[in-house]
Amino acid sequence: MTSNPFRFRVLRHAAALLLGALGLPAAVAAQERAPVTVFAAASLKESMDAAAARYQRETGTPVRVSYAASSALARQIEQRAPADVFISADLEWMDWLQQRRLVDAATRREVLGNSLVLIAPAGSAAQPMALDADAELLPLLGPRGRLSLALTTSVPAGRYARAALESMGQWPSLKSRTAESDSVRGALTLVARGEAPLGVVYASDAMAEPRVRVLATFPAGSHPDIVYAAARVSASRNPQAAAFVRWLDGGAASAIFRAHGFVVR
After folding, report:
1. Strand pairing report for 85-88 and 36-41
2. Is 157 annotated as a binding residue?
3. Which of 109, 154, 140 has its CA nearest to residue 253?
4. What are the chain's domains?
């Protein structure tokens, strides 16, 4: 039986087309599934873990999140750390990066708000109180206790806390009685462990930690508005980065953040 060279060439060409048709979508899908690397403020831990999982279920794109103080993350981005998206717990650090053209201003969004609360260990005898002109926090620290805060010179939660205490006239008596941590989660942990009798953190942090309870909420006018901003990092080449920032403004993400104690803007 003789072979037909023309028929063989046709079959080989058809096979090549079939393999290409099968392989091209797979390659495109693999590219679309490249992880989005997010640098997010430490206070977003539980909510962003949930949001990242939801985004992957919806889009097939994995999201990897690194958490730290906004100040630390901003400086890492300045040093060209590989990030696609930055989410800051204040506008100042986002502005700092934008002034250096390290985030894409066209993608920037103000996505969340929060409130500031005074906390104590869950087993503390301290009672709920009003943070008004008559409030006195120093006696609640006892003879050697310290007020747990995030760094008041650089970390957003610490700066908000200091502003609130200054507006109440409490800072002069408390500034030598503070224990300052590298992030708001560090400040939360000191109180949760009973190593500090009081702390100032975000309401969302207190909600995430069963070992603390809220004694009071600081009046909104006592500190600058707490605003979380998100933007694509300018150096990112991930086409999904801007899409993820937009998704943070949508209904699915908003429901997650509300459930974790944030205010959706």
Report:
1. parallel
2. yes
3. 109
4. 34-113+227-264 (3.40.190.10), 116-222 (3.40.190.10)
Tell me if 88 is assigned to a ligand binding site: no
> Phi and psi (nearest 5°) for 236?
-65, 140
* CA dist., res. 64 & res. 155, Å (int): 22
Chain segment 119-168, per-residue pLDDT in tens: 999 999 999 999 987 899 999 999 999 999 999 999 999 999 999 999 99
* Residue 130 counted as an annotated binding residue: no
What's residue 30's pLDDT?
43
Q: What is the pTM of this model?
A: 0.84
DSSP letters along 71-132, please?
HHHHHHHHTT---SEEEESSHHHHHHHHHTT-B-GGG-EEEEE--EEEEEETT--------S
Q: In angstroms, what CA-CA distances link 227 with 112, 130, 146? A: 6, 24, 27
**pLDDT above 60 for 239:** yes
Specify the DSSP element, H or E, that contains 56: helix 45-59
